[in-house]
Design goal:
102 residues, single chain
Length: 102
């Protein structure tokens, strides 16, 4: 390690992961869905992504964390489907996630 490296103060890293205490409570609790389920992820975008460029891992993890499904393993999720459509810039981009009981 050089003298220049020894004299530098480390920069603290940010905690980018949100706390889990912000989930739904009371009347806002999500309804639990019976496994197995099919998860459909439909993106409406101004510019289409590559066919393998749509990722919903964070959303599926949030669905599990909220208690809608118990786990995202093959025992609980039969299939994950991805689709997208190009929309006019007059509309806001969004992603629609649908869970269907099999």
């Amino acid at each position: 390690m050089s003298n220049a490296d020894k004299n530098q103060t480390p920069i603290p890293t940010s905690n980018l992961e949100p706390g889990t205490c912000h989930g739904p409570t009371g009347q806002n609790e999500m309804q639990k869905i019976n496994p197995p389920v099919i998860i459909s992820v439909h993106c409406r975008r101004h510019r289409l992504a590559d066919p393998d460029g749509i990722c919903a891992k964070w959303a599926i993890d949030a669905i599990v964390k909220s208690g809608v499904i118990e786990d995202d393993s093959a025992a609980f999720v039969k299939e994950v489907r991805f689709s997208q459509e190009k929309i006019s810039k007059a509309f806001e981009e969004d992603t629609i996630i649908t869970l269907m009981e099999v």
